[in-house]
Design a protein that fits this description.
It is built from 41 helices and 27 strands. With about 1450 residues, it is of the alpha+beta class. It starts with a helix and ends in a 26-residue tail after the last helix.
């Protein structure tokens, strides 16, 4: 009942009758709003996945905690490189910067939905720079970096996984540090090897090399000084003299080797010879030897100095090489991977031993040079400056120490290669997938506009790589000394002529300049060809080339004069090519400045228009005149205040919206017009620059400054510059196609988090909604009202069921809130409603039956099939679907529990605006299924809206609850045991009933004899119903309840966030069928349990009857049943009279008031209403009082006559009949013993028995043993009677009845008289037998025959009678003796002592039994005293027992001995 009442309050409509479908929609809106409530953060319940752990600005930390605490999250690094510089002939760079913005937004699979990571878009503050952002709590899902309004692709960048980026950077840093260390070591090793080589060099070779170096330097200097005049005689003489001196000196040196004994390099391998000069004159050998001795000392000292200097500077040189290598490596990394360089340069650690990955790369390189030594290296220390420069070292010392240092460096290198981080860096590939850190990258920058969306913006510049037309070109002037006046000759690798080769080269220049073949570009043997260069004509065929030729012709004579020599003072020298180029550039700049000035003027004018538009929009937004008027009107019309305020707010909102839209439109228009004007200005500037270039060429040709060939080349260059400038201007003023660029990527850490996919929706506080709300509607087909004479008023009536699609998808219906203009085209519409997916042949070109469509004879052309679209090519909104186990065929709409509050309102708007309810709606049903975990109860609620023919909507409902978790708790198991016991007991009862039927058949020859008693029928029906209830219960429990299962949610629809076609079923309705099967199964359980309860209710009524029957054993408990039995005939007659009066009033009320008052609209409701009035509910009297005219008079008469006759008279008659019968029965039973007295006596006797059993007295006989002895005594009584009859001889037995002794013959006569007195209908039957018997006809009972009466009388007298003058004690003694004899015979020799003991015990028991009999006799006498109504019958019986046949008749007997019937009860 708790669940039932909660659901009633939650979902039941407030009325039982509605007037229109708007009321149904209002109920639907209210119900959906109350149930579909989004979770509130902070309520202590984490409703996943709709509430989720917090990250960024999302999630509910109060309920779900932080996402980083429960999942392994990805750390993202977003790098943006931007350069907003742009050609001055287009939009200003600052404008591009101000408009651009970016954000990180989810695409799918993210808990936060589609909301971006940052609440507001991030903007740029510099024209050129980088932005690097780290996001350390990015959850798994599909994401995108959204760059907005980057019209010219000025922003490039990438998204990286920071962990992999750091790992990749670490590898690169280690490799770079090792490489730098190796270069430094190689530099030092090279230096050391040079020192070793210098130390190993002989003094002869060293002096010879010195001589050669000196003279070679002198000769080189002479050649350099006389390079401009290499034939000068003095130069040649000086050079020859120097060369001769070099030869003489070298010869003298070699002679000193074997002629000068004192020199350190002396080698006497040859006999000494005298020294001579060039003329053959002898020289002083001592002086010569002394010279070479001095020279050897100088060279030796120089060698030592060189070695010392080299060794002392080797580390500085190596460090310089390392610094240069580091700078080069960092530059290369920054160029290729700036993000890696940023990570490397950010590391500034100084502990390479413990934290190598955190060290600066320079620190790491220095560490790797020497290796992980705890002490300074020995060899390096031996080559310290103080040792090297001390002068104490010999050449072998330098050599040995250098070799030791080289070995030490090799050892250091090997040690470094064995370091863990170096091993990893050498073995791992930074470019492998393990270190692939880029999620997504994209290009952009200052020149990004040149290539972005090129196929859409300028397809003529999109090129393809081809080998066709590839050649190599060489241009050769005829006179290299005068290139301005020489002719240019072209040579191509394909061997073509000069003219053809010139055209080919021109084509190659155009293609390489204008065409774009992608980032990879073409190979060295391919040409990037595009439409812009393919359409190029030969320069000499250009229309502008004619002026070049004319200028060359007019200047040819002047050129000849120049070649022949001037006859007059020569003209000023022509400007050089650099000057000409400078003049062209200045001219172009001037033209561009002029265009820029014009463009700025246009921009200023356009800005003025925009400002004027903004001012107008602001004025419109600030216009409060309408508000003032409305406010004044509101003061005058107070009753319309709320409505006017609503309209005012709406109008102001529309004004603000219009102003904002106008401002946005003006801004967009200004930008577009600005680009257009800029492009026009740029084109004009380029044309002017091209014209100026042609004029300059013509002037140069006319003046004879350049040749025609050179002029042709300049014309080609001008033409190419014009084409390149046009391309640049076009692309600079044509925005990229996409205003928003989404660079998508996927973050997947494969977090294993189990969440429920169903939202929590509740009816009340604890009844959770399962699945959602299932709404279904059935419709009727409109047909012509042919059987009405008034069909001209309304020609359409409701016909049979209609299953054809109807309504319109409001997304495609203009004027609705759901209308989406972006989808209202053929491609998008067909993508949602595709006729090719029907699974059968769609129907097209249907004959037009709509008179409002006169444009075509057919409707529904392809692709608008008739199954999905109406005649106006709009998709239907609702389609039929069969739910065979629940509602049958109809139009279902399912409100999924996973819909958010906004989404369920969208579905409601779909139902409302799609016209789900219309004039053909017949029945609408809404079903909820809930589960209460506290009570473990399921509920199934169905609310029906019946669209009646009368125009109203009748609201009915059914709410049922059922518990399927039957045996879960300990209490349930106790109930299970009791149920099993009850089942066994019921089985025994049904078997006993069948056994009684079998016994009746055996004894009376027919099984139907058992059913002659009404109470037997009641017992049999009650037991049978009990058995049926048990069968139904176990079938419900074992086959239905225990196996029952239901899912919390079903994916009924394909997409809950669909843009259109909201009701498109998932997998063709498989999940909807599963839902209806689960709902139908629960409804089946509810219905089955209802049948079980109904059977139990009927059985309880029968059990009440059986209980009332059992109460007859006690006079006071049977008062009710005897009262009803006594009043039965009168009640039957009263019910006949009262029923006719009551039904008459009900019929009268239905006929008179049925058309005006709902309570009397049908005969059944009229009966119920009259009965309610009888019980005191007179609320209908208010409706009766509202009636006017004759109906009002009839209403008054009806109400008052009904109250007086039925309520006051007949109802009191009923009470009088029952009270009279009760009084009579009560009077006859007021002196009887009460139930409490009898129970007290029974308890007292039982206590005495138990007490005696415990005390074990010698005279105590157990009750069981006493019963056995009495049974034996009763079984032997017939033998004793027979023996007594034999001994009595002629003595006749008599039976004492009410103080009179009757013989068997006299008893027979009494019985006959009683039967005659009872009559053939059995009226003398005990009226207290049955309460039901008072209300059912009695069947005729067959009277006993005379023979049967004689046998019965003889048996009674023989069994209970006694002989004349026989003492009772003698009979008892004789019976005791006979019993003793039989016991002796049965026991077969039992000893006398035992028999004596048993006889004494039996005697004591008989005495106690006699006491009980005396008490019963006293009670019987009291009862007989109270039954005075039987006195007359007793007197008649006494008169019948008189032995004198001629005696006067006793009271109650006739003269012939027949019994006179007693007087009837007044």
């Amino acid at each position: 009942m708790q669940v039932h009442s909660t659901i009633e309050n939650a979902i039941l409509p407030g009325q039982t009758q509605y007037g229109s479908s708007d009321d149904v929609l209002s109920w639907l809106d209210t119900t959906l709003t109350a149930i579909w409530v989004d979770p509130v953060c902070g309520d202590g319940v984490c409703e996943t996945p709709f509430e989720y752990a917090s990250y960024g600005r999302f999630g509910c930390r109060a309920d779900c905690g932080k996402l980083s605490e429960i999942q392994n999250l990805t750390i993202l690094q977003i790098d943006l490189y931007f350069d907003f510089t742009h050609p001055t002939t287009s939009i200003a760079s600052s404008t591009l910067m101000d408009q651009a913005a970016w954000n990180l937004c989810p695409v799918s699979g993210v808990s936060s939905g589609t909301a971006c990571y940052y609440a507001t878009d991030q903007t740029f503050s510099d024209l050129i720079g980088t932005v690097s952002v780290t996001i350390d709590d990015c959850p798994d899902g599909n994401w995108a970096v959204v760059v907005k309004r980057d019209y010219f692709n000025k922003v490039g960048g990438g998204v990286r996984q920071q962990e992999k980026l750091d790992a990749h950077s670490e590898l690169v840093k280690i490799r770079t540090a090792v490489s730098i260390a190796n270069q430094q070591q190689d530099s030092e090793v090279t230096t050391l090897r040079a020192v070793i080589s210098l130390a190993n060099e002989t003094l002869v070779d060293l002096i010879n090399a010195t001589i050669a170096a000196n003279y070679t330097a002198q000769l080189s200097q002479l050649d350099s000084d006389n390079s401009n005049n290499p034939t000068d005689a003095s130069y040649l003489a000086q050079r020859n003299a120097t060369q001769q001196a070099y030869n003489d000196t070298e010869a003298q040196f070699f002679q000193s080797v074997y002629s000068c004994v004192d020199v350190p390099y002396y080698d006497g391998y040859q006999a000494a010879q005298p020294f001579t000069d060039d003329s053959g004159n002898s020289l002083n050998s001592t002086e010569v030897c002394q010279f070479w001795l001095n020279e050897a000392s100088v060279v030796s000292a120089a060698r030592i100095t060189t070695i010392q200097s080299t060794l002392n500077n080797r580390l500085a040189v190596a460090a310089t090489i390392g610094d240069t290598a580091l700078a080069s490596a960092v530059t290369a990394i920054q160029t290729a991977n700036p993000e890696v360089a940023a990570v490397i340069l950010a590391d500034t650690g100084a502990d390479p031993v413990n934290y190598p990955y955190l060290c600066a790369v320079s620190t790491l390189a220095d560490y790797y040079v020497e290796g992980p030594y705890t002490l300074p290296p020995v060899a390096r220390s031996a080559l310290a400056n103080n040792f090297v420069s001390s002068g104490n070292l010999t050449l072998p010392d330098y050599m040995n120490r250098s070799q030791a240092r080289i070995a030490e460096l090799n050892t250091s290198r090997a040690t470094v290669q064995a370091l863990p981080e170096v091993v990893v860096a050498n073995n791992e590939d930074p470019t492998s997938a393990q270190y692939s850190y880029n999620y997504v990258t994209w290009s952009g920058g200052a020149e990004g506009y040149q290539t972005c969306d090129l196929p859409d913006r300028a397809p003529s510049y999109v090129g393809t790589c081809t080998t066709t037309g590839y050649t190599t070109c060489t241009a050769t002037p005829s006179d290299p000394s005068d290139t301005a006046l020489s002719d240019i000759t072209y040579t191509c690798s394909d061997g073509s002529s000069s003219a053809t080769c010139a055209a080919e080269c021109d084509q190659l220049d155009w293609c390489s300049t204008l065409c774009f073949c992608g980032p990879a570009n073409c190979t060295s043997t391919q040409v990037c060809s595009c439409a812009a260069c393919a359409s190029l004509t030969v320069a000499t065929s250009d229309k502008d080339y004619a002026s070049i030729q004319a200028a060359a012709s007019s200047g040819s004579g002047r050129r000849r004069n120049l070649l022949q020599g001037p006859a007059s003072p020569p003209p000023p020298p022509p400007p050089s090519q650099e000057e000409q180029t400078l003049e062209q550039i200045l001219a172009a700049v001037t033209a561009l400045q002029t265009g820029q000035t014009t463009l700025q003027s246009d921009i200023d004018a356009l800005q003025a228009q925009v400002n004027a538009a903004n001012a107008a929009a602001t004025a419109n937004a600030q216009d409060t005149s309408l508000q003032a008027l409305i406010t004044a009107g509101r003061a005058d019309i107070a009753t319309g205040q709320t409505t006017v305020e609503t309209l005012l707010n709406k109008i102001i909102g529309e004004q603000n919206t219009a102003a904002a839209a106008e401002a946005a439109a003006a801004s967009a228009l200004a930008a577009i017009e600005s680009l257009t004007s800029e492009q026009k200005a740029a084109a004009e500037s380029i044309a002017n620059a091209y014209t100026a270039s042609l004029q300059q060429i013509e002037v140069a040709l006319q003046s004879g400054t350049i040749s025609l060939s050179v002029g042709t080349e300049l014309f080609k260059a001008a033409r190419l510059n014009q084409a390149e400038s046009s391309k640049d201007a076009t692309l600079a003023n044509t925005p990229c196609t996409q205003n928003t660029d989404d660079y998508t990527f996927t973050v997947a850490n494969y977090n294993d988090s189990t969440i429920t996919s169903a939202r929590e929706r509740y009816l009340g506080l604890t009844n959770r909604v399962i699945g959602g709300m299932l709404l279904q509607t059935t419709r009727t087909t409109p047909v012509n009202c042919t059987d009405s004479r008034f069909s001209d008023i309304e020609s359409l009536c409701k016909g049979g069921p209609d299953l054809s699609a109807y309504g319109v998808d409001p997304v495609f219906k203009s004027g609705t809130d759901l209308y989406n203009n972006d989808l209202d085209d053929e491609a998008d519409t067909v993508s949602f409603y595709n006729c090719t997916t029907l699974g059968y042949d769609a129907t097209y070109n249907v004959p037009n039956t709509d008179t409002s469509l006169t444009t075509s004879a057919t409707t529904n052309p392809e692709p608008y099939c008739a199954e999905l679209y109406n005649a106006r090519e709009l998709p239907y909104g609702f389609f039929s679907f069969d739910l065979p186990q629940l509602f049958g065929e109809g139009f279902p709409v399912f409100f999924d529990i996973n819909l958010s509050a906004d989404e369920v309102q969208t579905f409601y708007e779909y139902v409302e605006e799609g016209l789900y309810y219309d004039s053909n709606t017949r029945l609408s049903q809404a079903q909820f299924v809930t589960y209460n975990p506290e009570l473990q109860i399921f509920s199934s609620s169905i609310i029906s809206f019946d669209f009646t023919d009368g125009g109203s909507i009748l609201v009915t409902y059914s709410i049922h609850t059922v518990r399927v978790e039957l045996y879960e708790s300990p209490g349930d198991y106790i109930r299970l045991v009791l149920e099993i016991i009850l089942t066994i007991w019921v089985a025994i009862q049904i078997l006993s009933e069948f056994w009684a039927i079998i016994q009746a058949r055996r004894q009376q020859g027919s099984a139907l004899a058992y059913f002659k008693s009404a109470w037997n029928i009641v017992d049999f029906l009650s037991t049978a119903l009990l058995f049926a209830c048990v069968i139904v219960w176990w079938d419900f429990a074992l086959r239905d309840a225990l196996p029952f299962d239901i899912n919390l949610r079903y994916d009924v629809y394909a997409d809950l966030q669909a843009e259109a076609a909201f009701l498109r079923l998932n997998q063709n309705g498989v999940f909807l069928l599963q839902l209806q099967a689960a709902f139908a199964k629960l409804q089946y359980l509810v219905n089955k349990l209802a049948w079980y309860y109904a059977l139990n209710g009927i059985n309880i009524l029968l059990l009440i009857g059986r209980v009332l029957k059992r109460m007859d054993f006690q006079p006071r408990l049977g008062v009710v049943t005897r009262s009803l039995a006594l009043a039965g005939p009168d009640l039957i007659h009263f019910c006949l009279v009262c029923g006719m009066v009551f039904v008459g009033y009900a019929m009268m009320a239905h006929l008179i008031f049925g058309n005006t008052i709902q309570q009397f609209s049908t005969f059944g409701t009229a009966v119920n209403t009259c009965f309610a009035i009888l019980l005191g509910d007179i609320s209908v009297n208010d409706d009766l009082n509202q009636l006017q005219g004759l109906q009002g008079v009839a209403a008054t008469l009806f109400f008052w006559s009904f109250e007086l006759l039925v309520f006051m008279v007949l109802l009191n008659f009923l009470l009088a009949i029952i009270v009279d019968a009760f009084s009579e029965v009560k009077e006859n039973t007021h002196e009887t013993t009460g139930l409490h007295t009898e129970v007290g006596q029974m308890v007292r006797e039982k206590w005495r028995s138990m007490l005696a059993s415990c005390c074990h007295g010698s005279d105590y006989v157990p009750d069981k043993r006493l019963g056995q002895l009495l049974q034996q005594w009763g079984g032997d009584e017939e033998e004793g009677v027979a023996l007594a009859d034999k001994e009595a001889g002629d003595k006749e037995r008599r039976l004492r009845v009410l103080g009179e002794d009757l013989t068997a013959e006299e008893l027979k006569e009494v019985l006959q008289a009683c039967l005659r007195d009872a009559g053939p209908s059995g009226q003398a039957e005990d009226k207290s037998r049955s309460l039901i018997g008072c209300f059912r006809p009695r069947r005729q009972s067959k009277l006993a025959s005379e023979e049967e009466l004689e046998k019965a009388a003889q048996y009674v007298v023989a069994r209970f009678g006694a002989f004349d003058n026989e003492d009772v004690s003698d009979e008892e003694e004789e019976g005791a003796e006979e019993l003793e004899g039989k016991n002796k015979k049965a026991k077969g020799g039992m000893n006398d002592a035992l028999l004596e003991k048993e006889r004494d015990q039996l005697a004591n028991a008989l005495e106690r039994l006699a006491d009980v009999q005396r008490e019963l006799a006293d009670g019987q006498r009291s009862l007989m005293t109270g039954q005075r109504q039987l006195q007359e019958q007793q007197q008649r019986l006494v008169s019948m027992m008189s032995p004198a046949a001629t005696a006067p008749p006793r009271q109650g007997l006739t003269a012939d001995g027949s019994i006179v019937a007693p007087p009837t009860r007044p």
